[in-house]
Amino acid sequence: MIIIKNNYDIKKMQIVCKLTAQVLDFIKKYISAGISTEKINKICHNYIIDQTHSIPACLGYQGYPKSVCISLNNVVCHGIPNKKTILKNGDILNIDIALVKENYFGDASKMYTVGKCSKIAKKLCKTTLKCLYSSIKIIKPGINLNEIGKTIEKIAKKNNFSIVKEYCGHGIGKNFHEEPYVLHYYEKNQNIKLQEGMIFTIEPMLNVGKRHIFREKDNWTVKTRDKSLSAQYEHTILVTKTGYKVLTLGKNEKI
Ligand code: MF3
Ligand code: CO
User: Fold this and answer.
1) Ligand 1 atom nearest 64 alpha carbon
2) Which of 14, 16, 103, 132 could form a disulfide with 233 if both were Cys (CB 3.0 to 4.6 A apart)?
3) Which residue has the least CA distance to atom 4 on ligand 1?
4) Could you report the per-residue pLDDT of 211-221, keeping only the tens digit for each?
């Protein structure tokens, strides 16, 4: 069942999503060679508690041990911040932030680069962002949900990157994850018409090499099987009467 949000829900979602985006903007100045992912987690955690007056939704979610996910280079998603992982020149990383405020969830993630990174790393990040933006731009009531995956797949293929199939976007509101589940590739049988008041995330993960992944023994860290680089961007999006509104839009961000 897809929960259609009322005006009160939308007001609360706009607040928590805006704060989620603020954390991603705030942390940017700390991303440089020498900092540990543990430290980044700590800075985000304190900002979330003290400045946004929200709760980090990842902390304790299905036993997840930290406040944010930080996924470096060949880590696809759900990287656990730790003292041993120190950022170095040329790294690319995703920081995934989810907040709860007054029982409503916001969810967003983006890529950061450390110093000078390779051409292919830049192309991967740029293409993944383009996949997200292009799929957002088609959103309006009446279109089929599977158009989102179709749009992402077309751009990824054209650029020779593979799409991770095991994880998808999701409805979000008073639940962190709810229907509809949003595939990042074309699935003809996913036949859901978008309606005004739906809120969901789109969060494509693209790899330089093959799409195959595995999970580390820690039960969270997901990596590419072939050790190739992976990138992900995520926004929380509201379907409006005439189109869409990106609820987690950053300060200087334009879709
Ligand atoms: N933020 C992730 C998502 O996009 C969920 C991370 S779950 C965690 O749905 F427990 F790993 F944080
Ligand atoms: Co999400």
Assistant:
1) 10
2) 132
3) 107
4) 999 999 999 99
